[in-house]
Amino acid sequence: MQSIVSYPDRGVGGKSSYRGNCSPRLINDLIDQFSIQDISDYMCGSGTTEDVARQRGITSHCYDLNRGFDLLTMDIPERNQFIFWHPPYGDMVVYAGSQYSAEEIKEKYGIDALKSDLSHMKDWGRFVEAMNYCMIKQFASLEPGGRIAVLMGDMKRKGKLYSMLFDIVKPGTMENIVIKAQHNCWSDTRTYSGKFIPIVHEYLLICRKDEPLLVPLRMTVSTQSDIRDLKAPTWKDVLVSVLRTMNGPATLNDLYHAIEGHKKAENAKFWRGKVRQTLYVYPNVFSSDKCGAWKLAA
Ligand SMILES: C[S@@+](CC[C@H](N)C(=O)[O-])C[C@H]1O[C@@H](n2cnc3c(N)ncnc32)[C@H](O)[C@@H]1O
Domains, the chain, ranges and CATH? Predict the structure, then answer.
């Protein structure tokens, strides 16, 4: 196995008709790479992991909501050496009620699949929260030295990237990120226009558990800052940004007023002087009219 994998020929196992299924050849490569004798998959979908394990003569423990197992609410029965996890890609492909009947799952197992299915979580924040809960729950079931390999992708909506790889919590030791080229996916038939870059890859994140008690965690934190409160931006960039929010030319007092009280001003002793100096030093960026009001140079 190398850090980029590509399986144009899907291989045998699972069901290619089950949307979002994965290539059995990936599972095969993982079995070879990590000499796996025992593999678990708690969102096994069409049973690709199970089929490959059978072909290879190794033990597997495979579950899914479609078989009456809810990873969000039910206990993981095993202690694990290797978990393959292929969660839904947000709500890009919906499972319960689409790939299988939610009513049947309710009748047979008493589970409200529409509530538990991660692919029904339309709000990205809620999806990430559920995904991270599942990640830690599975990681906790690993024996020291055990691994979890997570296959996931990115989504683009209205010009914004929603990246599972970025937002997923990474427990333990991050061992590898493998790029997997995508083939024969439903979106291949679509034509895209403009600046849209079609996504033709997925990621396989591999995390290893080294310690029984301590769980190192890496996670993405999203915040929003005002440029006037950040350390790195220069005075030029702060002033340009302030001027962009003003309706028309601004007097020095207007500019002082807009900056006063922010960290940029608090951190410079003679900050008013710095404002004046910056305005004069960049005639290509700032210009003043006869009354001494400032605007952005054309
Ligand atoms: C991307 S598919 C897995 C495809 C699989 N690797 C294959 O090759 O067929 C994701 C699966 O997660 C399952 N799932 C979603 N939420 C779940 C939950 N809370 N508990 C268990 N399975 C869940 C869905 O039913 C779906 O089958």
Answer: 4-218 (3.40.50), 227-296 (1.10.10.10)
